[in-house]
Amino acid sequence: MGFFDSEIIQQEAKQLFEDYQALVKLGNNYGKFDRDGKKLFIDKMEAMMDRYRIFMKRFELSEDFMAQMTVEQLKTQLGQFGVTPQQMFDQMHVTLERMKAELEKPA
Predict the structure, then answer these.
(1) Where are the domains of the chain?
(2) Which InterPro entries did the record assign (predicted)?
(3) Element (H, E) at 79
(4) Handedness of CA 62, 66, 72, 73 (dihedral sign)
(5) Residue from 23, 13, 30 nearest 44 by CA
């Protein structure tokens, strides 16, 4: 059975994508959130990045040809912007840390 034939993988990918899209849409109103709302959003985004990192690691560790092709496609797409997958995760972490630090400043 191929990596993408797994119903668990398909469901997880679908859920991850839907959750990410919902967070991005919600994030459009980030500036209107109160402090607690901003903290909750950052926490949700960190959890999303952890889920995405784990999901991608499964692709990398899989011996399935299509899983490996997916990893290579991601590397190619990010490479067009001069970024590796690790740099993408690192940058997101830095951004979230900056957002947290901003919350700690007195209003």
Answers:
(1) 3-104
(2) DUF1825 (IPR014954)
(3) helix 65-79
(4) negative
(5) 23
